[in-house]
Design a protein that fits this description.
Layout lengths: L1 H15 L4 H17 L3 H13 L6 H13 L3 H13 L5 H17 L2 H18 L4 H12 L9 H10 L3 H29 L14 H8 L3 H15 L5 H19 L5 H34 L2 H10 L5 H16 L4 H18 L4 H15 L7 H9 L5 H24 L1 H10 L1
Helix pairs in contact: 1-2, 2-3, 2-14, 3-14, 4-13, 4-14, 5-6, 5-7, 5-11, 6-7, 6-8, 6-10, 7-8, 7-19, 8-19, 8-20, 9-17, 9-18, 10-18, 10-20, 10-21, 12-13, 14-17, 15-17, 16-17, 16-18, 17-18, 18-20, 20-21
Length: 431
């Protein structure tokens, strides 16, 4: 086992030295293949890299990223929060709960958690602070609910997991609906109970009660984006289109909404959006391809089988082993970004999970639920820094402290879906 140890040390050393994650994965994997098979590794590694990327389903990745970036440049996020706040204004803590609802719906529009935090947080946090909400409640509700975009389809992490594991992306999208909205409900219930116990953290309704006509008008500014999401996901769920085909329609529809309906897409904005989408998509593709080199080396020296045999030999119950895995993933998520964590850990953990008798579809769902916790935990919690970027009046340390109770709620929900796998698999089985 000396060679795998050397490879892991090289991987961690490169990451610690600040090397790009794709370079660390590719170089350490290539080193391992060379030690195991000699010079043939220099032919095997490129084959692994391009073979992983030669997937029709991966076409959905850049298209959904483009769709989210285009809609993120429109007032959709602001309009979602405005509509939710009008409908929930009567409720103490309604603005914070509206933030959760707006983030959940915006997650179905963008599929990227950072985009949700930026779009909703830039509007929600100032309004909550202006109306007397506690700073911790305002920051925590935005940072934690922004992570819902990772679970509610169309989800970029689901596309990546599907490409690495071979599980149907459409089935993953269906499986993410119930956990996503269950988590949104749990966060909303927590906020309500928190302000019920501590009324000083959120004031009662101030100002006149909004008229029903005003509430209905607020929906008129979001119906087109919602209709686009329903059509895109409906095409996937009914089998009319593959995720890649639906993503192409979604990207074209998002451009139409931005350019024709909102009239906020000029040539400069469009060019910036395309540049950003290409940059993000290219970075993710590099990581996926490089991780395949690393994963093929691990499979070559039978690391997944060794890890699986060692854990199953402990005679621990399956739920205990899974709990240990999830705790390890939470800790790793504090140090490694979500994309890298999926592509590195899936080849190692998926054989173990299937050996324990669990469904690969279910594991993909709980893995992404775990990553939702990772994006709001320091030091790599991207949502924390995204919120700081759009709300400079908040301190990073303040944001970190604010998300702690929300992370506990997320972890409790994660354990529920681990202990009762049938909840995650009910909707995919039904459809």
């Amino acid at each position: 086992m000396i060679e795998p140890t050397i490879v892991v040390v090289v991987l961690l050393g490169l990451i610690g030295a600040g090397a790009p994650i794709f370079l660390a994965l590719g170089a350490s994997g290539l080193l391992g293949l060379w030690m195991a098979r000699g010079s043939i590794a220099f032919f095997f590694a490129p084959t692994s890299f391009f073979g992983q990327l030669n997937s029709f389903e991966l076409i959905a990745l850049p298209l959904f990223i483009l769709m989210g970036n285009v809609l993120g440049a429109t007032p959709v996020g602001r309009n979602l929060f405005h509509a939710a706040s009008l409908w929930l204004q009567w409720l103490r803590g309604g603005l914070a709960i509206a933030t959760v609802g707006a983030s959940a719906i915006f997650g179905a529009v963008s599929g990227v958690s950072v985009a949700g935090v930026a779009a909703v947080g830039s509007i929600a946090v100032p309004q909550m602070l202006e109306r007397g909400y506690s700073r911790k409640l305002a920051a925590g509700s935005v940072a934690s609910s922004g992570a819902l975009a990772m679970l509610i389809p169309p989800s970029v992490p689901f596309i990546i997991y599907g490409a690495v594991s071979g599980v149907s992306v459409g089935a993953l999208f269906i499986g993410g609906i119930l956990p996503g909205f269950a988590l949104a409900l749990a966060l909303s219930v927590y906020i309500y109970l928190r302000v019920l116990r501590n009324p000083d953290q959120a004031p009662a309704m101030d100002g006149p009660k909004p008229a029903m006509a005003e509430k209905i008008r607020s929906l008129g500014n979001i119906w087109h984006a919602m209709l686009l999401v329903i059509i895109v996901l409906g095409a996937i769920y009914t089998g009319i289109a593959t995720p890649s085909e639906a993503a192409a329609f979604g990207a074209a529809g998002a451009i139409f909404i931005a350019a024709v309906i909102f009239r906020c897409l000029d040539w400069k904005t469009a060019l910036d959006i395309f540049k950003s989408s290409i940059k993000v998509s290219g970075a993710i593709m590099l990581i996926i391809g490089s991780a395949k080199i690393f994963g093929d080396y691990l499979n070559l020296v039978r690391v997944p089988e060794t890890v699986s045999a060692a854990l199953t030999a402990t005679d621990l119950p399956a739920w205990a082993i899974l709990t240990l895995i999830m705790i390890a993933l939470v800790l790793l998520g504090m140090l490694v970004d979500a994309v890298s964590l999926i592509v590195v850990t899936t080849p190692i953990l998926l054989p173990l999970v299937t050996t324990l008798g669990y469904d690969p579809l279910w594991f993909g769902i709980v893995l992404v639920m775990n990553l939702e916790i990772a994006v709001v935990t320091p030091p790599v919690g991207l949502n924390l820094y995204a919120l700081k970027g759009v709300c400079p009046q908040l301190e990073v340390e303040e944001i970190i402290r604010s998300v702690v109770p929300f992370v506990i709620v997320q972890f409790v929900m994660l354990m529920i879906f681990i202990l009762f796998p049938e909840i995650s698999l009910w909707l995919p089985g039904l459809l």
